[in-house]
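From the pipeline queue, job 12 of 40. The input is one protein chain; the requested action is below.

Action: predict structure.
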Amino acid sequence: QVFAAKGGCCQLGLFCPCPCGPCQEVHFSVREPRKGKDVARLKKTIPDCLKFLVADDVDNYEVDFGKVNSAEQKAMLIALGLFIDFRYFNTRSDKNQEGMDFFSDSD
């Protein structure tokens, strides 16, 4: 195990994501388990009000590489951010599937 990410479960951005105030951000610390020290941080930010109303599935991620120096580990942190987004924040939406019904075979 190279990295372990931890985000507090009591962050307002997890329960009530809004484009303002403390509900706008969710923070994750990234630890190196062997040394037991934080080496990087990930932050998910909900964009401004207009983007939030028009495209509710848009989020911004910031990766602070901190003490990570190698390119392979930096790539792994970026992949971790993508994994966190897909695993915890993306929900399958019917509006994304509506256009696909045209192509499905209904025989």
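Job complete. Helices lie at 12-15, 49-54, 71-89, 94-97.
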